[in-house]
Amino acid sequence: MARYRTTVHTPADTTTALNYLADFSSLTDWDPSAVESVLISGDSGHIGATYRVRVRLGLITLPFTYEVVEREGPDTNGGARVALRAETADVISYDVMTFSPAPGGGTAVTYDADLAPKGYRRLFDPGFALVMRVIGDRARAGLRRVLADLPAAAQDADHVDAKRPDAGSDA
Question: In this structure, how many other beta carbons lie within 10 angstroms of the beta carbon of residue 160?
Fold first, then answer.
């Protein structure tokens, strides 16, 4: 099984980052190998939503139908998770994104993608792993770019007031 895992930071809060990435039509915003990602059924970004995705690998374009199979959170600690799955005659793809509050503000987003070849294609798993690394590194760069552009998390009003010079005065 080929696997790619990376963590990137966004100034956005967990809910904003989760809502943006759980809507898998955003894939073409940040993954240069994705030439199409369109919601075809369900409530965008929620369990049961399906997306038609086409991924370009060199000279070929591969079709996938991804489904949101899990969506949790944000929980009381600010964490969240979304998982998507696609299966073709050749591979099973399982992508999990986890979201957690980052020290100093914003959200740490971990993207964990598994690509499992089926049947005789398992013999070529080392090749899948190499391709996955190249595609993953390109996608990570795009993910960093779009997540950096998400709006920053709002600061806690009490925290902001405590830093104002006139905080606590009725003047």
Answer: 11
